[in-house]
Sequence to fold (933 residues):
Amino acid sequence: MYQQISKLLSISGKTVNYRYEPYLWNIKSAIAQGNPYDMSQLHHYGLWAHKKTPLFLDGSHPVHDRFLDHLFDEPCDDKPSMAPDAYLTKVIRGSGRLRSYLAQYPDLKIIACIRNPLDTINSSLGMFSFFGEEFHADDRDRFRDELEARGGDVSELGDARLSVEWYAAWWRAMTDETIAVANDFPDNVFLFCHEAFQKDTDAMLGKIMDFVGIHNIGMMSGLSKPAGSSVKATSLTLRDIHKLEPQMQHYFGTILEDQFDPAERKDIGSRVLARYCRGARFSLPIAGGDVGRKTPIQLREMIMTKRRSPFLKMLGQQHDSISITELRRHFGTGIESYDDTPELDLLQSRQSDGLTIGAVVVCRNHGSTIVQSLLSCLNQTRPFDEIVVVNDRSQDESRILIKEIAQRYSEIRVVDLHLSVGEGAACNMGVQALTTDYFTRLDGDEIFWPNKNAMEANTLADDLSTVAHSDAAVVDGDNYTMRNTKNLDGVSGGDAWKVLISNPAATPRSMTLSRQLFFDVGSYSLTQTHYAHWEFCLRLAARSGIWRRPRMQPGVVSLKSDRLPVGVNEGILARNMSQIFIQSLKNRPDDYDSVLADYDALMAHHATRHIARAARGAIARCLTMNGERLDALAAHLQRRDLNAVPNLAYATALESFEAHDSKVESNA
Amino acid sequence: MIRFSIITITRNDVIGIVRTLQSVFAQTYQNFEIIVQDGASTDGTSAVLRDFGDWIDDLAIEPDEGIYDAMNKALRRATGDYCIFMNSSDCFANPEVLEKVAQRINAEVHDIWSGLVLDNDTGVVHNYWPEDEYWIGMTFCHQAVFIRTSLMQALEYDTAYRICADLHFFGRARKAGASFKSNDLVISRMPLTDGVSSDFVDCLIDRFDMLDREWGDTFPVRERITQRLAEYLQKSYDLPKDQLADLSIDEMLALHRTMLPLQRA
Fold:
């Protein structure tokens, strides 16, 4: 638009002083293209004037008045002895100061652009949009203060200073002010509505020419309809889109009332939503990046000079959500029909079932996948109410990546452990930090399916004893495996226990349960080194209600082939499994007929090991006494002095327990 | 067979206490008792401790008058041959530590047996004062020293010293004729920038009066402290050597108080 107006002025033979985004750039050119837009072009006077001037200004201000003179009252740039015929400026950061412009220059003509919040804010988060500088990180505090002084709602403006809530407040305040000024000064302000321009380009261009008083047919061909409408990439997660729903309601429900009828507004709004929710490539927001230290301009310069930082490395990685098409191709009919379009109706408020659900993400040296994991939490069709990331003292770039993401999403809280305590204890701390009714857990090398939270939430039915679970897709290079949990679908806790006791692999990786139930069960063991999740689920099954699987689809996608630890002595694994089995027998719901069969099924891989045979012998001995000694056996093995002894000593402890029984029996 | 008393002091440190106890319970040598003194935590630490059940031999949850008071309270309940203070966030370097110490320690001879500490962040062995300069500072870290329990209980920590009560204790132990043995075995890892005594100047000054009183007649305590403080200030503030040459300790402290805020700004 700036370039088109400059052409109109040029064609009409006028000498013009040009000022392109003067609060930021020192560019006195009719054409925006071709400039480097780097540090050398920064307008230090404009930056200073911007910082010294309130964001909202109605009248005179000593610094700003002189700045306006720089825009509209200086001699001709090319011929300082003359005054130009016209002044043309394109302004960003000025929406709140339009009244002061008109107060000082009452003849000024202003073309004020408005556009829907999704497009506007998405643009401001991006890399090559200078609109990213419109709401600069430095302006956060005074924007909040000024907005509050004007009676605006600042309750959403918290510590996540790069979050979309801040951009939403800025968009709303500046858009409302623009419209108010347009209403108050109808002869001076032309409201350029982007959506109206899309609807009837020629009509809009004709009105602009009427407004500026210069007509030329070339205007019709120079600015085409597609300008600015395509969304090549989105930096908005589904979580952000949910957050922007009130702004979308305001724009399409109120602001565009005069421009479109209700059906048109609903149609346009839905198409805007669809562009962001269906298939747009995701690109991490760059605005304020590198832990807030660098501007987009500096970051762009770093990219061009191939300098690296963890943030730039993060930007360069692929962060698209999992390819549903790809997974369907591999699993065929293994996945039920999945509709990946979130169910958003622009003009209806979101239903609330009253359930609050949080996610705990445990990260330990998952620098290559943690961003994808967190994005999968943020791209849920049903947003999580809280997300706690527990960094278990990672030694790679995880910490800085987590911090970068947490700045942008207000529901993310970070628990940074100064000592590594293991994933079980780390998860406990994460669940403790949540305040939601229910929670789910994700490891830093896993990704949630986009509708996992919605599906599992629907299954819970507000029953605190229910355990919702889903299948797990395992992707390891070219190998795709589906670990389904159908054997746990619709079963009671007791029956779930029977499924799990002989098969750790049946343990669901994707679960949602109540925090209260988690604590009642005793949370994760702080000393269990292997199979901690299986051990927890056995205790959970003993106390829970129904286990429900919402549908045949994965809840998580795991990016490694197996949860079993690598390089661990198999004897240790056998010991852990047998110990957990024995400890869990006290939760056995019925008789002991199948105990040994369950044990044999569990320990099939380790059957010939000394420790496995010793444990079996001890169990068998207890069973001949009607299982009365099983509790004593479990207590015997849970002694602290057996915790770290070598396997041989542990096996001896098992055998001595058995011998003790034999001695008691023979004495009797 | 030597029996160890592992004494752990904690308050409002869930993460640290979990890590410390994990390292204790992982020890392959099991002839020990673990005594935990929790200063009435308010952040859930106490609940975590209770969850460990009988894996903790002796747990007391009660207010105290500071860390050394807490250590004395726990110490009085110790029944092992040797005790070691492994406070929350400190942890044994590996599961074989107690086993190796038990092999190396001579219970008939050694009253105070010390090993090495690694910085938890860098993994580097932490340096202390040379053994023959015990009159100026710690020659080892209390997280790496095993003390004969009877000796420890006889002397206890003097709680009048907020930071250097441990140094004061070892001084009294020397005067009581205790035998000291150092070893190059790595005992523990600890976060060396945390804790009560992390500020160098505070540490130096806290101990100065005590050291001067205990050892000033026998060793050049004042001169050495003055020299050490000058070295520290010269390095920290990039000062020329001669600027500090004639300054007293009090004058150097005044200079430090003036320059520290400027440096931080």
